[in-house]
Structures are given as structure tokens and as C-alpha cells.
Design brief:
heterodimer; A: about 325 residues; alpha/beta; 5-stranded parallel sheet; globular; B: about 250 residues; Rossmann fold; 9-stranded mixed sheet; two-stranded antiparallel ribbon; 6 helices; 15 strands; about 30% strand; binds flavin-adenine dinucleotide; binds adenosine monophosphate
Amino acid sequence: MSILVYIESNENAIKKSSFELLSYAKELSKKLSLEVIALVINCSNISTLQEFGPDKILSINQTKLNLFNAQNYAELISNVSKSTGAKNIIISDSVNCKYLASLLSVKINAAFISNVVSIPSSISPFILKRSTFSNKAFCDIKINSDIKILSISKNSFGVNKNKSEPIIENIENDFIESGIVFESVELSSGSVSIEDADIVVSAGRGMKGPENWNIIEDLAKTLNAATACSKPVSDLGWRPHSEHVGQTGKPVSTNLYIAIGISGAIQHLAGVSSSKVKVVINTDPEAPFFKVADYGIVGDAFDVVPKLNEKLKVFQAENN
Amino acid sequence: MYLGIFMKILVCISCVPETTSKINFTNNNTEFDSSQVQYVINPNDEFGLTRAVWFKENDGAEIDVISVGLENTDQILRKALAIGADRGYRINQEPTDSYQVAKLLSNHISKHNYDLVIAGRESIDYNGGMVAGIIAEILHFNYVTNCVDLKINENKAKIKREIEGGIETLSCKLPLIIGAQKGLVEESDLKIPNMRGIMQARSKPFEIIEDNTVETKTNTISFSKPDNHKEIKLLSPDNLDELIDLLHNEAKVI
Ligand SMILES: Cc1cc2nc3c(=O)[nH]c(=O)nc-3n(C[C@H](O)[C@H](O)[C@H](O)COP(=O)(O)OP(=O)(O)OC[C@H]3O[C@@H](n4cnc5c(N)ncnc54)[C@H](O)[C@@H]3O)c2cc1C
Ligand SMILES: Nc1ncnc2c1ncn2[C@@H]1O[C@H](COP(=O)(O)O)[C@@H](O)[C@H]1O
């Protein structure tokens, strides 16, 4: 019996979120006395996983798994879960993981719990905390099924180093391929994606128009951050829909969220509030965002943002 | 038109608190406090419903809407009928768990020949993001979520799906279940029911289904709210060095 961690990758490189998943699994393994198995698909740099304590790494290299396909991946993880007797399957909260998890849950007769934010407070019965109502609340949930799939909210547990010397096994797997055929992909060019970013620079209607976004992009570039926006900004066509964050857009759970010219409406905050540190820059000291932020500047974005960018560049030059 | 006959579409609708609702709990934090809360069609489901109405208007399609819920859900289904759906169903059980909801919806779907089932990417109250996938796997439907564009020709669907850092295009055969989100239609495409629609909705077929299947895998025990936030540190726009210092040394995020 085991805890199986699905290690997600992006263009054959292991995603950083995997380290948090392994840290979570390691903590869980202490409570359950089960070994931690990491499942890696088509990745080269698997040795980095050793820092986070897996007992075993199962590595699969198959060309037909090169492209993510939820059905195929669910089928594969189902096969591996069965052969390793996995009782707990730990995955990230990415769109792809949630997509495959609902399919997987039926295949292995498991309960799927998304948005998990804690280690179980009790093992028997198995109870843990997840976020709900679009981050406006949490609930304690009791899981009745023997097999459980847990998707862990990004940055909710943290990364703990825990070196191990895992057994590494290369495995092959055969499955019936899904009826969903990949046709093409359009990648947004060059930018950091909101899902992967450690820092997100987000701006709202206070920016007045799309022509002013250069100062936002410059700041994001300095910080190696993703750019995001409020809903009206994407509705007005100032920025692409993929940048819309909040309750009805993308959720953001990053280390640092910088909100510029965003009032902080309840629907916006719902989607971004689980970010660790929030900075707000707004001319209006009464803007609701000031009530939930960690650091705030009452000031004009057109003045503050370029200055902040210049100072950050100096800071980075001195600290490198 | 699809194969010369009407395409049959089912839209799954979750009834959720309106987005500005205060989220409070009662009964020793074991129940959601629904007093003074207004309920609406889950926003992701509304995008899906609007897309379905376009299929009806442009390609000929018949739209059923369904919700698992108690009597208070009826108003939401009536609204969906006023927007353009043809027939409403309510499965009369209180939804407590995604698996239970998916199982009940599957029982209904398996008795009808739907070509397309539309659900939302996720509900804004439970945020499970799983009902549609569970149905797909139970019924062996193709399934694509985070769907931002859907075209159907004969019995083949072409779907655009939002992924991290881009958009991918997929294709598959019907029957298909999708998870809808903004982009499938735009905010400005959403329809507010007009008087005629509301009148017509009154005479559209509406059925209450009694299905006592209960298969849950989880129970919600209690709710809590995030801790009250600590005081914000306000900094002067003339002192950005201090902000950088705090982000570096105190918050340790840069
Ligand atoms: C069903 C529903 C779902 C929704 N979902 C979302 C969602 O997912 N995400 C979302 O973001 N919104 C969502 N909204 C919209 C939300 O209610 C707000 O309308 C929106 O977040 C406001 O965007 P904003 O802060 O950019 O604009 P505004 O509210 O107009 O705020 C602009 C801010 O900029 C400040 N400002 C102006 N000039 C400057 C300057 N020079 N420098 C600095 N600051 C300046 C102003 O003081 C103000 O606070 C939703 C609404 C509904 C009804
Ligand atoms: N009680 C319900 N009745 C009908 N459909 C539902 C119900 N709950 C969820 N759904 C559908 O499943 C989608 C995903 O919900 P969830 O898995 O709860 O995030 C929703 O957007 C709805 O389309």
C-alpha cells in the first residue's frame, strides 16, 4: 500500500508545484505509515525529486504520452494506482490535474477532494480541510471511501526538504487510447503563466486604457511575474480573457500578488485572496482592497509603478 | 443542423448564492446560512446555457435543463426556461456530495439520448470541478472541460480548451459532455429573460423526478471562515525603498 504522487511536468521539466506535493505526501506518510511513490511521465531531471523524500520513483517514457490527454493520463494513473495499491493519490490543483482526477475517481472508485488546504486532522475517520465558496470559507470534510484523491491548493502546505534515496524504476504501460484527438495549440507568447508564477502583477480599470499597460508589463518583467487583470478589463477587451482573475476567472494562489488600480470587489478578492502576500496600489484610501492587503500604497499608479520598477531594478542589481 | 434531426442538449444547472452574498454559517457552523441570500444560475452554467440557446437558434436543437435540488431550485430552472430552454427537470434531493449529484444526473442522462451535455467548469459554491467528469466516466461520454469554444458538425465536435499558458484545440465524436466557462460565450452575450420568455416558461414542461439513489463518498462536517486579517502596513509613495525592504526581509517574497 502506498501514497502515490503524480508529478506534473511542462515540456519534460518537472513543475515546481511537485515539490510541495511530495512534502505533503511525506507528512501524510508519517501519519499513515505508507511509502511515498512518485509517478513521473516523460521527464529527464527526476533526480531533483530526491530532495523531497519519495521512497520510490516510477518513471514512464512513452511517446504517446507526450501530449497531455486527460483520458489517457487518468487511465495510466489508474493502472499504476492499482498495481501499487495506492490508497491516497496526491495531485496538484492545476486545470489538467482536476480534469483527469474526476475521471480517475470513477476508475478506481475513489473520492476526489479538490482545493485541499491541510493535512488531515484525523485519520480514522479521515477528515481534512478544503476551501469552498470561492475561497470565502473552508469546510471540514469527512471522506468515507477507502481510496482518496487529494488535489492540494498551491502554496497551502509549503515545501519541506527531506532527502531520501529512492528506488528508481522504469515502467511501461499499455492502455486504450482516448477518443479525444489533439488538433493544435496556440501558446501565449513568451509570458509567464498565472498558474505557474510566484509573483502576479495585476491591474484594473484604474489604468484607464490598454495603452497604459506598458508600465504593468515592465514591472512584471522586472519581477519575472505573470500579468493579470480584473474582469471589466478583460470584458472591455483591454487585456485577453486568459488574464481575468477572480471568482469567475482564474484563481490565483501565488506568493506575491500586486493589485494596481483594482478596487477589490468581493468577486475579485474571492479568487485572489489565498495568495500569501498582497500589495495594493490605489489612489482611493477607501478602496476595499486595502482591508485585505498586507502592504498598501495610497497613490497614483502612473507615478508609483514606474518608480517602483526603477527601484526594484536597483535592488536586484545590488542583491545579485 | 445536426444529421438532419434536432440535436438534443442537456444543460446541468447548479443553483448558487449570488456572487456578492455574505457567506455565513449557522447551527454551530454546520450549515450555510441561506437567510437573505439570493440564488442564481451558477455563472459557468449560464455561459453553457447561452451557448445551448445559440445551437437552438442557429442549428436547430432541443434543450433540456436539469438540477438536483429541493423546491427552492425551481425558480432557477424557470429562469433557464425563460432564457430559452424547452423542458425542465428537477431531481428532488438535497445535493450534499459531487458523487451523489453526478450519479443522479447520470441516471437521468442514461434514459435520454442526449448528443451533448453541458455542465459548468465548476460551481462557485462547492468549487468541486468534478461533477461533469464523473458523469463522463460513468456513461462513457467524451469529456472536455475549461471549454472556451465549441463547434458541432454532423456527429463531430471541435473544442477549444483553455490550458495553462494558452488554448488547445481538440476534436471528438458525440456524445460529449463539456465543462463550460467564460469565453464559450461572452458576458455581453448573456440573456436577461424578457416578459415573453417569462410567460412562455410557465407553459413549458417541467418534471420533478423522484430518485432515491444515494451514493455519497464524503460528508461536510463543519465550516469556518478565514482568520481575520492582520493590519495592513501603509507606506508612503515617496518611500518605496521601505516597501522593497519589507517584501525582501519581512515577507521574503522577492
Ligand atoms: C457575477 C459577477 C462575477 C464577477 N466576477 C469577477 C471576477 O472574477 N473578477 C473580477 O475582477 N471582477 C469580477 N466581477 C466584477 C466586480 O464586481 C468588479 O466590478 C470588478 O472587480 C471591478 O474591477 P476594477 O477593480 O478593475 O474596477 P473599479 O471597481 O472601477 O476600480 C478601479 C480602481 O482603480 C482605482 N484608480 C483609479 N485611478 C487610479 C490611478 N491612477 N492609480 C491607482 N488607482 C487608481 C480606483 O480608486 C478604483 O479603486 C464580477 C461581477 C459579477 C456581477
Ligand atoms: N445540484 C446540481 N444540479 C445540477 N447540476 C449540478 C449540480 N451541482 C453541480 N452541477 C453541475 O456540475 C458543474 C460542476 O460542479 P462542481 O463539481 O460542484 O464544481 C456545475 O457547473 C453544474 O453544471
